Amino acid sequence: MAGLGAAVLGPALASIAGAQGRPSLTLRANAGVIALRPGGPDTPIWSLQGPTPDAGLRFKRGDELEITLQNQLPVPTVLNWHGIDGVPVAEPLAARAPLGPGAKETLVVPLRYAGTFLCDLRLLGDGQPSPSGARALVVQESDATIADRDEVFLIEDWRPRPDGTAIAPGIDPADTVPLYTINGLTTLDIPVRIHERLRLRFINGCQRNVIAIKIEGHDVRVMALDSQPAEPFLARGGALVLAPGTRVDALIDATVAAGSTSSILLHNGKEARPIARLVGSPEPLLRDAPLPAAPPLPSNGLPGQLDLKNALRIDLTLGGPRADWVTPANFASSAAPAFRVSAGRTVVLTLTNRADIPEIFHLHGHHFRLLDRLDDGWKPFWLDTLAIEPGQTQRIALSAEYGGRWLMEAVATDWAAPRLVRWYSVD
């Protein structure tokens, strides 16, 4: 699973009746704080606040969600989505200009897919006075209950200075120490009963960092990646590898006895550290034996086949000199697109990383298949985010189903590296 990308949410239901009976959601971009050091002062951050303090919000597949963004920050901002396909009116920069301080806007987003989604304010976040947090959004399947409980794990990283303030990405992190939170907390205990089945929605909400997550003493069965169902498979060595923005939905059957614990470990490429624990509950067994293996999640309707033979083929270079990639602040839709394609045609992108560190590629508007090395097939899952190792080339394929202008993002796995964008057009 190396190179995949992820994001997730908490147990809140936010379905406030809106116009015409559709659910509505108000998000406020404003100043906030987070507790990063036990016993120390709170750290100022910029946040995306919803109707509850939980990490995420839940809706149903098929909802038309009316979203209002209120900008209470002193700078322009724009809402950036991971996993929402085919909604051109919601596309940041290409369709929606940054929202000025004190302004608000409302749009309607059809929730076509069930899955785990992520939204944030980070597209314009490089070099800002404070780092900003993310929010998870869960769209629930209408006809699938595959677990006893459904938990969101939104993992974020922060770079506090000795004085307790934190820096935004795009700034030299000298004199800072990386700290991690899960659902806004520095540690989290999850009570479980033996043979209880949990659906864990892991989201990598880190700014630049690829992470690995391991649950000690448990098999981890992957059910979905980047908001799309996958053919279920066991994570190799019980570890999940997530690029920034990646979401992984996984199942575990709890084996923790009453009074015992099982650590959830985060590895950031340098060291492993516990960020949460499964804690055995003294309550009676939920059942006498583990449940049988869960069937695949219902399809979201993405195509079963891709016409690689007649695909439009485009080469894109990541890392190194990239005259065609620009920072979001300098984006102009009047610039030439990376490619234009007719709706319904397959596109194969060859992504080559010329840098000496991994690059993260995120595609807006569509999901893609990761092609096999011989270009004769693809991995059995869909993605919207991919990490590409130094000097490597990866090929991805998408079905250009949705007309509109869509962004592509690229960023190196370095806190100080700039986020860069281009766009493509489906006509």
Helices and strands in order, then pairings?
Elements: E1 5-6, E2 12-13, E3 16-17, E4 23-34, E5 43-49, E6 56-60, E7 64-71, E8 80-82, E9 104-110, E10 115-120, E11 134-140, E12 149-158, E13 179-182, E14 188-192, E15 197-204, E16 211-215, E17 221-225, E18 228-234, E19 239-244, E20 247-253, E21 261-267, E22 272-280, E23 312-318, E24 340-341, E25 346-353, E26 359-363, E27 368-371, E28 378-383, E29 385-388, E30 393-399, E31 404-412, E32 420-426
Parallel strand pairs: 1-19, 2-6, 4-7, 6-11, 12-15, 14-22, 23-25, 24-32
Antiparallel strand pairs: 3-4, 4-5, 7-9, 8-10, 10-11, 12-13, 15-20, 16-19, 16-21, 17-18, 17-20, 21-22, 25-30, 26-29, 26-31, 27-28, 27-30, 31-32
- Within the largest sheet, what's the order of strands? 1-19-16-21-22-14
Distance between the termini: 33 Å
* Number of helices, counting only DSSP H or I runs of 4 residues or more: 0
Give the percentage of residues in beta strands: over 45%
Shape: globular
Biggest sheet layout: 6 strands, mixed
Explain what this protein looks like in three dimensions.
This protein is mostly beta strands and 427 residues long. It contains no helices and 32 strands. The chain has strands at 5-6, 12-13, 16-17, 23-34, 43-49, 56-60, 64-71, 80-82, 104-110, 115-120, 134-140, 149-158, 179-182, 188-192, 197-204, 211-215, 221-225, 228-234, 239-244, 247-253, 261-267, 272-280, 312-318, 340-341, 346-353, 359-363, 368-371, 378-383, 385-388, 393-399, 404-412, 420-426. The strands form 6 sheets. Strands 1-19-16-21-22-14 form a 6-stranded mixed β-sheet, with no helix packed on it. Strand 31 and strand 32 (420-426) form a beta hairpin. The radius of gyration is 21 Å and the shape is globular. Residues 1-19 have low confidence and may be disordered.
